[in-house]
Specification:
The complex is a heterodimer of chains A (203) and B (150). Chain A is mostly helical. Chain A contains ten helices and no strands. The longest helix of chain A has 46 residues, at 37-82. Chain B folds into two domains: 1-60, RNA polymerase sigma factor, region 2, helix turn helix motif (Rna Polymerase Sigma Factor, Chain: A); 64-150, Arc Repressor Mutant, subunit A (Orthogonal Bundle). The chains are: A mainly alpha (203), B mainly alpha (150).
Chain lengths: 203, 150
């Protein structure tokens, strides 16, 4: 028999050696020291990310708080103007809201609605109606505009309210409009506007 | 794989270290493995390469490509051995061969690498591998005869 063939056929006899049991422990140690190393780096990296994220979060909170403080300051000035005894200041407040205040703030809207019903100055009321029209979907504003039309006596304010409700296509305004048209005391120009508004709303 | 390492190094501790290191290296470079089916062969190649590196560093053997002229092929009948010869005796004889012959014989007969692959592993010409293999085999046959008769 050929030597080469004989050895190849009995190859398994050369594989009798087995690794010692202690090598398992050594291998485990080696695994930890070599392959777990990047994990540690990852943890360190994560730590940095966490710290950076915390700094960014803290800075954002600080900015937000500052902004809120600024907003609340603006709001306070606005409310103070709206509640001022001077009609000029109130008008200033309404225009400031109209120009700068885009947020639907409940407290400010309630103050504006109060002005709509109770203010003695027609100019302030007219400016308030324009300001309230910034939020056409607000149900509270729509119903209060209808109520204001029912109670309003000043012709210029009446006309502004009629135009506002016509613009809003407010169906519920038909009743107060009819009342105005049928009221003998109503100015003819107001009646004309009310009639036009009725037609607009019904379309 | 442990068997391959110990056959090259003839040292248990070193072979164990090599196998463990090879596994770690394998894990780290697993992305270089092109065919998953060859994982075993790939890891074995790492073990063999590392074992040969260690053996080289110990200066147990130096391979050179000086034997590039193929020697005359000996008579084929000279390869024949008697059927009563034991495999343990052959193992003993292989282990007593010179390092450079022993390793080539092991890589060719036991690890199943061909001459070209062995050349790549040892960084020598294929013809040198063939010569070393033939000389190693001749020496082994001599040893088998001498030890048997002696």
């Amino acid at each position: 028999m050929k030597l080469e063939e004989y050895i190849k056929e009995n190859k398994t006899h050369f594989d009798s050696e087995k690794m010692s049991s202690s090598s398992d422990l050594a291998f485990e140690k080696l695994l930890k020291s070599k392959l777990h190393q990047p994990k540690k780096q990852k943890v360190v990296y994560l730590k940095y990310v966490t710290v950076a994220a915390s700094v960014v979060l803290a800075f954002s909170v600080f900015l937000w708080w500052n902004q809120q403080e600024e907003i609340s300051k603006e709001k306070q000035i606005l409310l103070a103007n709206l509640e001022n005894d001077s009609a000029g200041k109130r008008l200033e407040g309404v225009y400031a809201f109209n120009d700068e205040y885009v947020k639907e703030d409940k407290k400010i809207i309630a103050t504006l609605i109060g002005i709509l019903h109770k203010d003695e100055n027609a100019n302030v009321k007219i400016a308030t109606i324009d300001a309230l029209l910034k939020f056409p979907k607000n149900e509270q504003i729509r119903t209060n505009l209808i109520t204001a039309l029912q109670n309003e006596k000043a012709p210029l304010v009446q006309i502004r309210l009629i135009k506002a409700l016509s613009f809003l296509r407010e169906n519920r305004a038909q009743k107060p409009l009819e009342e105005l048209i049928n009221n003998e005391e109503t100015y003819p120009i107001v009646k004309n506007n009310a009639t036009l508004a009725m037609v607009e709303i019904k379309q | 794989m442990f068997g391959s390492a110990i056959r090259i190094l003839k040292n248990r501790e070193e072979a164990e270290d090599i196998v463990q290191d090879a596994f770690i290296k394998g894990f780290e470079k697993i992305h270089q493995l092109q065919d998953e089916a060859n994982l075993g062969a790939w890891l074995k190649r790492i073990v063999v390469n590392k074992s040969l590196d260690v053996a080289r560093n110990r200066n147990r053997f130096i391979f050179t490509s000086e034997d590039s002229i193929l020697e005359n092929k000996p008579d084929e009948n000279e390869d024949d051995i008697k059927p009563d010869i034991s495999i343990d005796f052959i193992k003993e004889c292989i282990n007593s061969l010179k390092e450079k012959y022993r390793i080539v014989l092991m890589l060719y007969m036991i690890e199943d690498y061909n001459h070209r692959e062995i050349g790549e592993l040892l960084n020598i010409n294929e013809s040198t591998v063939r010569n070393q293999y033939r000389r190693g085999k001749d020496q082994l046959l001599q040893l088998l005869k001498v030890k048997k008769t002696g």
